[in-house]
Amino acid sequence: MDTQLEIARRRTFGIISHPDAGKTTLTEKLLLFGGAIQEAGAVKSNKIKKGATSDFMEIERQRGISVSTSVLAFNYKSKKINILDTPGHKDFAEDTFRTLTAVDSVIVVIDVAKGVEEQTEKLVAVCRLRKIPMIVFINKLDREGKDAFDLMDEVEQKLGLKVTPLSFPIGMGYDFKGIYNIWEKNVNLFTSDSKKNIEDTIAIDDLNSTELDQLVGKSASDKLREELELIQEVYPAFDRESYLLGEQQPVLFGSALNNFGVRELLDCFLDIAPPPTPKETEQRIILPEEPKMTGFVFKIHANMDPKHRDRLAFIKIVSGTFERNKSYLHTRLQKSFKFSSPNAFFAEKKEIVDVSFAGDIVGLHDTGNFKIGDTLTEGENLKFKGIPSFSPEHFRYVNNADPLKSKQLEKGIDQLMDEGVAQLFTLDLNGRKVIGTVGALQYEVIQYRLEHEYGAKCSYENFPAYKACWIETSDPREEQYLDFKRVKQKFLAKDKSCKEVFLADSEFSIQMAAQKYPNVKLHFTSEF
Ligand code: GDP
């Protein structure tokens, strides 16, 4: 087996969208192309549905599904494609942020009628910050929606992207005739059929020929010609280099439900998307083709069965090959571990494999040794960067509700925080513990899991914080810093890795602090 070839043929990406834009549907259609599944309906939605079931039952269901959809892999046209699942629900946004540290590119799905929505904005902002290459897929063209040019304007303005269309719709909704593929220079005529697996496209060498008129009608073809001209004037030509640098984002149109435009999306993705990309450690940059294995933990999943207390740690392999039963250094613990049953993921199954390559994700059984962000190597002391914690949006004191179970509570909280369910802050003033989450749902998850997995009970009390700001100072003896600490004493805490945090109670107090103490830098993420 040629390792370099194996690495070069991997494409690891995530699909991000606001809930309901069509991420699950698109994922499923992509898997159909790989022959990884035979029929529609095989990919389960990881959506949280409010309804008959109570919230925590829903959460348990969600956890089960999210194991099975964590990584979906398939082979297509000699490439190995790994799709990493990114929950769309805002209460699981932190999980999605972390998953984005493990992808080499993303596809952004946007609903043609709803346009850019809130969750898309947040997730794209993270991708933009990290300069992740993005392809935009405008979905549901079979429905009435916004004008394609208006939508691209909206994408540029709200998401801060620089787009260039690689395909363009001919009509829309009731009048939807098909798509002109600028990338491949052909036309795909629309027939609504969700079971269609292979699309027939008609090559159009000369847009001015009558061939196009015959296919879609004279008025539609004239309109298309005008629009394509406008596109040429307004948008820059596609430039792969700019795309790879995160400076330009190609846009494609389609309808996932009708499996329309999906083959084009996948083929375009294969043509342009990056193979495994280099990644920074605190020590140096790691190249995927380096012979020695390096990787990091981006997700931890507790076992659903309370009798088996082990967890599955998801590792993104950054370089080299990961081998079964080989010894690897866990650099935070400075301890070596061997893994006898590393899981690899195929379609919706996972199975034990002997070798995985850079770009792949392996799931390792873990009894509590891993935390999000941990690094594995063949001996070199490295620590991967870029897996920060983000400021939570909700804060509550956590109290022990069963004094006989304080050990269990401590262990439970500790492990749940390692899994990244929420963040723990310890107040400087009195040592009280505050749990910060992205969504209120997580408090229910924590309470439920503490009770069912650790036999501990907790209660919450509101803590009046607005944001967690990680504090940076160039000199801990500096006057402004000391003054800041004295004045804000009540709001100071340590995060789990003992970094100093200011739990600000309002936007106003953050602004005031920034004004009054310009030498004290406040950050909304733990890495700066
Ligand atoms: P997710 O929340 O982003 O995973 O969205 P889903 O894939 O679950 O899709 C949300 C809803 O939109 C479902 O009812 C889909 O059947 C529907 N949907 C997805 N793609 C299309 C499309 O191309 N056209 C239409 N009309 N509906 C679609």
Would you write up a description of this structure?
The chain has 528 residues and is α+β, with helices and mostly antiparallel strands. It has 3 domains: 3-169 and 236-272, P-loop containing nucleotide triphosphate hydrolases (Rossmann fold, 3-Layer(aba) Sandwich), CATH 3.40.50.300; 279-377, P-loop containing nucleotide triphosphate hydrolases (Rossmann fold), CATH 3.40.50; 394-523, 2-Layer Sandwich (Alpha-Beta Plaits), CATH 3.30.70.3280. The strands form 7 sheets. An 8-stranded antiparallel β-sheet has the order 27-24-26-25-29-30-28-31. A hairpin with an 8-residue loop joins β14 and β15. The structure holds guanosine-5'-diphosphate (GDP). Guanosine-5'-diphosphate (GDP) binds at residues 17, 19-25, 45, 47, 88, 139-140, 142-143, 255-258. Residues 17, 19-25, 45, 47, 88, 139-140, 142-143, 255-258 line the site of guanosine-5'-diphosphate (GDP).
In short:
By secondary structure, the chain is α+β, with helices and mostly antiparallel strands.
> What is the rounded distance between the termini?
40 Å
| Largest sheet, strands/sense/barrel | 8 strands, antiparallel
**DSSP helix fraction:** 25-40%
Low-confidence stretches: none
Principal-axes shape call: globular
Q: Whole-number radius of gyration?
A: 25 Å
The tally of beta strands, per DSSP, is 31
Using the coordinates above, name the CATH class of the largest domain. Alpha Beta
Helix tally equals 14
The named CATH superfamily of the largest domain: P-loop containing nucleotide triphosphate hydrolases
Order the strands across the largest sheet as they lie in space: 27-24-26-25-29-30-28-31
Return the structural class: alpha+beta
Determine the strand fraction and express it as a percent band.
25-35%
Provide the CATH topology of the largest domain.
Rossmann fold
Keywords: Cytoplasm, GTP-binding, Nucleotide-binding, Protein biosynthesis
GO biological process, one term: regulation of translational termination
GO molecular function: GTP binding; GTPase activity; translation release factor activity, codon nonspecific; translation release factor activity, codon specific
Family: Belongs to the TRAFAC class translation factor GTPase superfamily. Classic translation factor GTPase family. PrfC subfamily.
